Amino acid sequence: MHDKFEKATGRSIDDWMEFFGDPQELSHQDLARLASEGGASEWWAQSIAVEIERMIGRRQIGQTVTGSIAASASKTVPGEWTEVFDKFVSFMENKQLADAPRITATDTWRYWRADLEDGSQVAVDCSEVKGKTRLSAKIDKLASMEKRDLAKEKWRALLNEFAETLPSQ
């Protein structure tokens, strides 16, 4: 599990732990900033900070920096990413949501966000990855770790169901 840190940054997670000194005294932001200053890319700096927080007992797998519980699921599918996103929006029209979804866009991303009936929230982002489309769902504000597992299964199945509606390429 920890080999990924050494492969990506040249330091094992234990080396990063030593680099930080006493991580209990450092906030998540401090850990990420120091990891970045220590040579990790921004993405890896965040991953290192999260893993260190898990190691020192500050957070569990699936727990965000604010203490809420989150889950994620993703699916890579064929097709031009903006067209796939539009199809995803249509696919989600008849799903039960607490409120209308919020859709935003940049030149390289599309976002679909919604409040769910159980009080949790979901954000699905869509982008082009090596000529395909990646849809990534992040479900936040889950009530328990059990709900996390159920949300992960549900969104994985939902993304797979959506993928089956797309033409194969």
From TrEMBL:
This protein's source sits in the domain of life called Bacteria
Q: What is this protein called?
A: DUF4287 domain-containing protein
Q: What organism does the UniProt record list as the source?
A: Corynebacterium nasicanis
